[in-house]
Structures are given as structure tokens and as C-alpha cells.
Amino acid sequence: MRQTVQWTSGFVLALAVSGSPVAAQEHGHQQMMMPRVPADKLAEAKALKSPLPSSPETVEKGKTIYEGKGTCINCHGVSGRGDGPGAATLNPPPRVFRSHGFWKHRAEGEIFWVIKYGSPGTGMIPFGGMLSDEEIWTVMQYEQSFSGGSHGGGGGPQGGGRHNGRGMMKH
What we know:
47% helix
């Protein structure tokens, strides 16, 4: 009985502090809809396309990077839910790769850009110094596999931008 009271008190306190579960879901949806590429770089980022063909081999290589060198697992979690051990203190929380909406509303070039250059105002640091462009595209195929989707990204209209035709950024 005492454990039930403690659990109930903790749950009520958590709701009071964080708001309702519905509000939390709405906040998460709003966060997913917001681009994390700066406005002055968004068209350039959206224009990028992966140079890699979709393949199980690429997904497997991406998993190795995600769980190892890329350290993605630390924040995005084992199954892409944004629940890795480093996620607890991040605000906004890490992206959830299991969400079909995330992949529908973000162009693959946006995701590439954020991995390479980081995301101002979030805990997402730049990985361009740690991962090659090819490794970033590779890990993205694995990340997209969490939602059951195929490689290719969505993300609205494709604007102009500078890239070298192989999905690699020029600066």
C-alpha cells in the first residue's frame, strides 16, 4: 500500500511539473515539425541528396557507426527512441527516429546537415570532424530503418543550394 501511495504521489508530481501526457506529446510533435537547420542554410541543406544506394549492407554499416564511432546511441538510444543515457538532460530532447512523421517532414539533406554541423540551441553537437560525409549518409540509412522506412527522406520542397552533385556539402 505504501509503495502504491509513493508511486501515485510521484506520478502526480511528475504530471504537475511536466504537464499532461497529451501536452508532452503535442510538444514532441511541435519539436519534430521544427527544422533544426538555421533558416539561412535550410535551402542548401534540403538540396542535398544521399549518394548511397539503399541496401541492407549500408544499413548494417550504419548500425556499426551509430553504436560505435558516431556515438549516436548515447542520446538517441538503442532503438532510436531518443532515450539513450545522455538524453535525460537534453532540452529539447533528441530526435526520435522511430517516428514516421520525423522522416516525412524532414528532408534527408536537413538531417545530414544537422549531423555534420550540429544544431544550435540543442544538445546536438557537430560530428563533421568525426565522421566523413559518406559515414553520415551511411548512419542515416540505419537511423531511418528504425521507422521501417526506406532511405530517401521526405521533407517538402527542395530548394536550391550548393553541393557537389554527390550529396557532399561545399563551404
